[in-house]
């Protein structure tokens, strides 16, 4: 039997106009944007559809914006009978996966990720933290580099294990800069500074994690109806209490994306559907395993294409 996974993008995939065609053509889609506005108490939809981009990119806006669009798309796919066997999301995208797996309601999730963005923004003042993508250096070699730099007083660590040859580091601005230089000395092809508002998935996010723990504790999480592959463990999880613990740890732990994809493939997944703006995760998938089939759903045309093709496969 063909197994399908829904995968959800994280920060960086947001764009002005995201979901516009779907919202204009479908009243059911519009309700997601309207519900987000109501829960948050401001017009997130106006920001998503009209910008400005600088405001949309702020972490406390980008997070609910991406979750809203991704959740809307997953809802439309499920409504059409395309039901995934697994869900997974990259960093923030894990919350969209939890909505698709019925752990959180959309309203709970959109408020929670807005709060998460505020906590992350407050944890480290702008300019004090940084992230960089290191290309062409192995995990063990990069771990040695980050350990050496951290030993000298600057926090820097592996943040995202994205795909073969692409690992992201995170920490203090000085630590990331020094580690980038040492990584190139150790054989990395490139070290690319990322345009982000903070040192995500590093120890510097622990204050934000404490605040997030309190916010999640105020919500009654449900056990997952569809297994979610965790960023922290790269393993399937359904238990609500375990999910809560993992979401707190996720803020300062590496995103084990490559392992997460491999886990789903080992469990028989052959089709991955990226739900949300952009094609970042589909690009990573091609570097992890080119034998699987990938789809990106971000507008009416791509939605209908997937509904037609996967509907035939699931029914056939």
General description of the model:
There is one protein chain. The protein is of the alpha/beta class. It has two domains: 3-123 and 204-315, Malonyl-Coenzyme A Acyl Carrier Protein, domain 2; 129-196, 2-Layer Sandwich (Alpha-Beta Plaits), CATH 3.30.70. 52% of the residues lie in helices and 16% in strands. The strands form three sheets. A four-stranded parallel beta sheet has the order 2-1-9-10, with helices on both faces. 50% of the residues are buried.
Radius of gyration: 19 Å
Q: Give the oligomer, counting copies of the same chain as homo and different chains as hetero.
A: single chain
Main structural class:
alpha/beta
Overall form? globular
C-alpha end-to-end distance: 10 Å
Low-confidence stretches: none
- Strand adjacency order, main sheet: 2-1-9-10
CATH architecture of the largest domain: 3-Layer(aba) Sandwich
| Name of the level-1 CATH class of the largest domain | Alpha Beta
Output mean pLDDT: 95
Helicity, as a percent range? 40-55%
* Percentage of β-strand residues: 15-25%
> Could you tell me the number of beta strands?
10
| Order of secondary-structure elements | EHHHHHEHHEHEEHEHEEHHEHEH
**How many discrete domains?**
2
- Can you tell me the CATH topology of the largest domain? Malonyl-Coenzyme A Acyl Carrier Protein, domain 2
Tally of individual helices: 14
Largest sheet: 4 strands, parallel
CATH superfamily of the largest domain, by name, is: Malonyl-Coenzyme A Acyl Carrier Protein, domain 2
Could you give a short description of this structure?
The chain is an alpha/beta fold. The chain contains 14 helices and 10 strands.
């Amino acid at each position: 039997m063909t197994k399908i996974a829904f995968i959800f993008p994280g920060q960086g995939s947001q764009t002005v106009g995201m979901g516009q065609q779907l919202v204009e053509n479908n009243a059911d889609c519009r309700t997601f944007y309207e519900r987000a506005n109501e829960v948050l108490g401001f017009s997130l939809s106006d920001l998503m559809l009209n910008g400005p981009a600088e405001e949309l990119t702020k972490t406390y806006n980008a997070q609910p914006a991406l979750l809203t669009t991704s959740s809307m798309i997953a809802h439309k796919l499920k409504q059409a009978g395309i039901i995934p066997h697994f869900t997974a999301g990259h960093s923030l995208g894990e919350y969209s996966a939890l909505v698709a797996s019925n752990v959180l309601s959309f309203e709970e999730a959109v408020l929670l990720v807005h709060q998460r963005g505020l906590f992350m923004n407050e944890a480290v003042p702008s300019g004090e933290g940084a992230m960089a993508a290191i290309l062409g250096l192995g995990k063990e070699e990069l771990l040695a580099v980050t350990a050496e730099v951290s030993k000298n007083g600057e926090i820097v660590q592996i943040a995202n294990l994205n795909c073969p040859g692409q690992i992201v580091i995170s920490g203090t601005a000085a630590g990331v800069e020094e580690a980038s230089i040492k990584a190139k000395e150790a054989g990395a092809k490139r070290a690319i500074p990322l345009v982000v508002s903070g040192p995500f998935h590093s120890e510097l996010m622990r204050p934000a994690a404490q605040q997030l723990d309190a916010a999640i504790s105020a919500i009654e999480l449900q056990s997952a109806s569809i297994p979610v592959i965790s960023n922290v463990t790269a393993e399937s999880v359904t238990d609500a209490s375990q999910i809560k613990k993992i979401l707190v740890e996720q803020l300062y732990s590496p995103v084990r994306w490559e392992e997460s994809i491999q886990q789903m493939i080992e469990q028989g997944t052959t089709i991955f559907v990226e739900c949300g703006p952009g094609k970042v995760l589909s690009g990573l998938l091609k570097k992890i395993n080119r034998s699987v089939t990938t789809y990106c759903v971000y507008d009416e045309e791509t939605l209908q294409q997937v509904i037609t093709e996967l509907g035939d496969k699931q029914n056939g």
